[in-house]
Write a structure and sequence with these properties.
- With 605 residues, this protein is α+β, with helices and mostly antiparallel strands.
- It is built from 9 helices and 10 strands.
Length: 605
């Protein structure tokens, strides 16, 4: 839009103050508006809060007066049917200054006596049901106080309410309303809050700022508090025009101030901008020539102000540039030469690092194979160790079994020897029986001979020896039987003797076999003990081997990790070396470009 600095400077000297003043005025207005609205909100809220407190105190004082009247004995007698209405009306006339109407109502809602009872709504008397508090009916304020068997209802006078309302006139249009769901008590000449606002206030309990249009058509700002104690609300109302009139005056003041400030800024800045723009244009032209390579350019210096110092500084800068470019040309030549040598060294180092990286990769692969082999050997060593431990357990069990077998063999040997001894004793006793049997056989033989002789002698005796002959015959038969029995006994004893001899020989062979078994068991025990010692040594060696292999595996893992780290470091070094090689190559090309640029584009050196 603007092609030169002069036009831009003039435009900006006007636009910048305009924008600044506009923004500043807007900020001041917004801040002031918020402060004013917050202050008005606070004033309205405090007016409502004060109205709430004062209303509670006022209602309490009026209720106290009404309670005194309700507690009068005549009122109680009237409610009990013991007094006439005329007697009570005299007492009720005391409250005539405060209340425009009074009525004594029983529990059925029937008005028994009062003053101007026609102003007491019949439905209110039925709805109270013995409760105390203020009530609003048809925009009038009523109070009720409990009695013994009923309630005392009073209507507050319009003058009393108006006097109370005047005490809350907090601004020109600010007023206080007493509201309920049944009606609204307001000062004369003011609009009353609508029903929707009353419903919202009862639900929320507190409304600080509600801007709306009243039923009369005016814009008003409402603020309220709900009093659950009395089921009433206190609402403040103020016209919006009164609140925003302050803002309108504030806006006019800010606009006037901003316009004056803008005019003053333009008149102050514009001459200075014009005076500064022309020297800057000369500097711009000289800088363009310097940018085109004419480094012998200079600017005419006039005056001693900052612009003159700027021109002088520009001339010094051009001189410094000339000297610096000369040195830069020499440095470019040196950099080109040195970068060529550095490029060769970087290429050689990159090649060496690549070879080292390949070798370390091979070492890493070898270490990985060694690590896997070590892992396999470690697992096998653990298996051997487990087998050796099982062999130790089995050898221990074998030693115990052999020892038990030796003990059993010794016991069997002792039993065999005992049996042999018993058989020998039996053989000796059999021999004794044989000798006795021989004696018995001899005696039987002699008895037989004697019986035979006796039979012969009996035969000789004739008739007298016949009985003795029978006895001798029986004795001979008995002797023959004894000989036969002794013969059988000898045969049996001979068999027993042979069996005993065979048993003795067998027991001797059993004893020798038991002794041989004991020797073999002892030998087996020694062999098993030697084998157990060898197995113990093997298990210990296997455990040592497993531990050594485990330590070796840990060492191999550490070595593998170290080699991998070296591999990563070498790879990083290789990458950095290649970056350095690329950077040196770029530096070499840059030095060549710089030297060509200095030789081609610059003049005046």
């Amino acid at each position: 839009m603007f092609k030169n600095l002069y036009q831009k400077a003039v435009a900006r000297s006007v636009l910048f103050p305009l924008i600044l003043v506009t923004v500043l005025g807007f900020v001041i207005y917004e801040y002031s508006r918020r402060v004013v609205l917050e202050e008005m909100e606070y004033i309205i809220d405090q007016a409502v809060e004060g109205g709430k407190t004062t209303f509670n105190a006022w209602i309490d004082s009026e209720l106290n007066l009404l309670r005194k009247l309700a507690s009068d004995p005549k009122v109680e007698k009237l409610l009990s049917g013991e007094a006439r209405p005329s007697e009570v009306e005299e007492i009720l006339s005391i409250g005539g200054n405060q209340f425009t109407a009074l009525a004594v109502v029983d529990r059925n809602g029937t008005i028994l006596a009062g003053i101007r009872t026609n102003e007491i709504p019949t439905n209110l008397a039925r709805q109270i049901d013995g409760r105390e508090g203020p009530y609003i009916v048809r925009n009038d304020l009523f109070l009720s106080a409990s009695a013994s068997k009923g309630v005392l209802i009073a209507k507050l006078g319009r003058e009393v309410v108006e006097e109370f309302m005047k005490g809350f006139k907090f601004s020109r249009s600010g007023n206080i309303h007493i509201i309920s769901e049944e009606g609204v008590v307001s000062p004369q000449g003011t609009a009353k809050p609508e029903g929707r606002f009353i419903e919202r206030l009862k639900v929320e309990g507190k409304i600080k700022w509600d801007e709306r249009r009243s039923p009369s058509g005016k814009k008003v700002i409402l603020s309220g508090r709900w009093l659950p104690r009395y089921d009433l609300g206190i609402v403040s109302e103020i016209e919006s025009d009164e609140v925003y009139s302050v803002l309108r005056r504030l806006k006019l003041g800010i606009v006037a101030s901003c316009a004056a400030l803008l005019l003053l800024s333009i008149l102050t800045v514009l001459p200075m901008v014009i005076r500064i723009a022309f020297p800057i244009r000369r500097l711009t032209e000289a800088a363009e020539k310097l940018a085109q390579g004419r480094i012998d350019v200079e600017v005419e210096v006039k005056g001693k102000d900052e612009l003159a110092m700027l021109c002088k500084t520009f001339n010094g800068m051009a001189s410094s540039i000339r000297g610096m470019i000369s040195k830069l040309k020499e440095a470019a030549d040196k950099v080109s030469e040195m970068s060529g040598e550095a490029l060769k060294a970087a290429s050689q180092h990159s090649s060496n690092t690549a070879e080292q990286y390949a070798a370390i990769n091979e070492v890493t692969a070898t270490m990985e194979e060694i690590h896997q082999t070590s892992q396999s050997i470690s697992e096998q060593a653990q298996g051997v160790l487990e087998v050796a431990r099982k062999a130790v357990d089995i050898s221990s069990s074998g030693r115990e079994v052999v020892q038990e077998m030796i003990e059993n063999t010794y016991s069997m040997k002792e039993r065999i020897e005992s049996i042999a001894q018993s058989i020998l004793s039996l053989s000796e006793q059999t021999q004794s029986i044989a000798e006795i049997t021989t004696s018995v056989s001899d005696i039987a033989e002699q008895s037989r001979l004697l019986a035979f002789n006796a039979a012969i002698e009996a035969t000789k005796a004739g008739e007298y020896g016949r009985g003795f002959s029978v006895i001798a015959s029986e004795i001979r038969n008995l002797a023959e039987q004894s000989q036969s029995a002794t013969t059988q006994i000898k045969q049996i004893l001979s068999d027993i003797q042979r069996a005993a001899n065979s048993a003795v020989m067998i027991t001797e062979e059993g004893t020798r076999g038991a002794e041989a078994s004991i020797k073999l068991a002892n030998r087996a025990g020694e062999v098993i003990r030697d084998l157990a010692e060898i197995i113990d040594e093997s298990a210990s060696s296997a455990e040592n081997i497993a531990n050594a292999i485990s330590q070796q595996r840990i060492g191999i893992e550490q070595a593998t990790s170290a080699i991998q780290h070296i591999n990563e470091t070498t790879k990083a070094n290789l990458d950095k070396t290649r970056q350095i090689e690329s950077a040196v190559q770029s530096l070499n090309e840059l030095a060549e470009d710089l030297r060509e640029a200095i030789d081609t584009h610059l003049t005046g050196i």
